[in-house]
Write a structure and sequence with these properties.
heterodimer, A: 230 residues, alpha/beta, Rossmann fold, six-stranded mixed sheet, four-stranded antiparallel sheet, 33% helix, globular, B: 255 residues, mainly alpha, 2 domains, 9 helices
Chain lengths: 230, 255
């Protein structure tokens, strides 16, 4: 098989995520149509476009929180439907705009990824991570209601990366943050991408983030704008 | 026997309904029709059940008793399902949960020698257990529906982090079980000091020594605790999966 030889020798690389004519329809309403895109491992892709254009829907389809109604979506060379959704979401993690923190303390949140995998909580890693994002190690037992907006966003982001995913989807995670927190979160995402090799998909309305995008995909009315994908 | 309710006193007691109707009419509550239907239905249903029980108690047949218990359980399950707000498979879940909660509770009571498999004991006790289980399951369903809507984003975030359905739903399921059991726990806490509940009042009313009556009430308290806890746990753990599709994505049922 020539084709298999090509894969084996690495002459032909397979994109980490491949979307081919992906569409999403609710009743008569077409939310997404003909989205075709290849995303390679280690890339940082920024999705931009007006509100209601279908960016979050697309992100949720990629995160397996919604199922596309047409087209094909493959991850690591296999159709997304061939993966167990739970196992898939541990590899492709999605972070919400204005995240909800669980339980009562920061620990409840950072321990959650361990609990669901039935692994012992690595509190030392959690303390190191908290310090890295500008919080104190003692904040591990801080009540979540006592956190500021910026601190909540940092804890939520850490929750997504306590156990590294391969893909991290960030849905307007800097929206509503002040300039200082925004810059900090952005540098954190850059660290995940550059130093940890996590593939990043960000959704943003922020002009400075759009300008700084390494690869920009613009979605308007459920379609990729011609020339809007670089 | 101190009871002196005859047909004439029942007709006079109908005056109490008139008071309720007058209040409903004066306050423009719009429930006059419901009240009249409720009263007529209650009178007809109770007369039918009175004569039916008289017949069943007289012939004392095991199979007929068992069939009547199953009918009670099915009806309770059907009524609980009506409160499910579109949760998939609510009828088999409700009937199954009430069947098991009633079966286990009756089984333990029989093994303990508290009751015997005779219609005059089994049918009323089954009715009490099944109806309490039914109310508890109805409350569980209402809470599941409300919480899955309210906590939609938290559930989605847990799923997005790779939680399985049990982990993603755990807090909601726990809160719903608690909601289902709460009325029974509250009434157990206040029994005797706020209310003299049905069975105890009935026995005292019929002239039984209050000290003997409380023993029956203690048994009822225990059995209702068991019935509502088993019914709530089973119904919640069977029902929460209905809030997800086959791709383990959240879908809130439509009513």
């Amino acid at each position: 098989m020539v084709c298999n030889d090509f894969y084996a020798e690495g002459a032909l690389t397979v994109s980490l995520l491949t979307l081919k004519n992906v569409g999403y329809q609710v009743g008569q309403q077409q939310i997404l149509r003909d989205i075709s895109l290849n995303i390679d491992a280690g890339e940082w892709v920024t999705f931009a476009g007006p509100s209601g254009g279908g960016k979050s829907t697309l992100a949720r389809i990629i995160a397996s929180l919604l199922s596309r109604t047409s087209g094909e979506l493959t991850f690591d060379g296999q159709p997304i439907d061939s993966y167990d959704p739970i196992a898939y979401r541990r590899r492709v993690s999605y972070s919400f705009q204005q995240p909800t923190l669980f339980g009562e303390t920061v620990r409840d949140n950072l321990a959650f990824p361990y609990q669901i995998r039935q692994l012992p909580f690595d509190s030392q890693r959690a303390i190191t991570a908290l310090e890295y994002v500008g919080l104190a190690g003692a904040d591990l037992d801080k009540a979540v209601i006592d956190l500021s907006g910026g601190q909540r966003q940092r804890v939520a982001l850490l929750r997504n990366v306590m156990i590294y995913p391969e893909v991290l989807i960030l849905d307007e995670v800097t929206a509503g943050l002040d300039a200082e927190n925004k810059a900090f979160v952005w540098s954190l995402i850059d660290h995940f991408n550059q130093d940890d090799g996590i593939t990043i998909l960000t959704i943003t309305h922020d002009q400075s983030e759009i300008t700084a995008a390494k690869r920009l995909v613009t979605i308007v009315d459920g379609q990729i704008v011609p020339g809007g994908a670089s | 026997m101190n009871l002196a309710v005859n047909n004439q006193s029942l007709v006079l007691a109908l005056g109490l309904v008139m008071i309720a109707l007058a209040i409903g009419w004066k306050e423009k509550l719009g429930i006059d029709r419901d009240m009249i239907i409720g009263v007529v239905r209650a009178v007809i249903q109770l007369f039918v059940v009175g004569y039916l029980l008289k017949y069943v108690f007289r012939i004392a047949n095991i199979w007929l008793t068992a069939i009547l218990i199953l009918i009670i359980i099915f009806n309770a399950g059907y009524n609980a399902k009506q409160r499910s707000g579109g949760i998939p498979q609510a009828l088999p879940i409700s009937v199954g949960a009430i069947l098991i909660s009633t079966g286990v509770t009756l089984g333990v009571l029989m093994l303990a020698g508290a009751i015997k498999f005779i219609p005059s004991q089994m049918i009323p006790i089954s009715g009490m257990i099944a109806s309490n289980s039914m109310v508890a399951i109805g409350l569980c369903y209402r809470n599941l529906n409300a919480q899955f809507k309210q906590e939609r984003q938290a559930v989605l975030e847990k799923l997005a982090l790779g939680a399985d359905l049990k982990h993603a739903s755990r807090d909601i399921v726990r809160a719903s079980i608690k909601t289902g059991m709460q009325p029974t726990i509250d009434s157990a806490k206040t029994v005797g000091i706020v209310s003299l509940p049905g069975m105890m009042s009935g026995l005292i009313f019929a002239g039984v020594d209050p000290v003997r009556a409380i023993k029956y009430q203690i048994m009822v308290t225990f059995m209702l605790m068991s019935a509502t806890s088993i019914g709530s746990v089973l119904a919640c753990y069977w029902a929460y999966r209905g809030f997800y599709n086959e791709r383990k994505q959240l879908q809130v049922p439509s009513n």
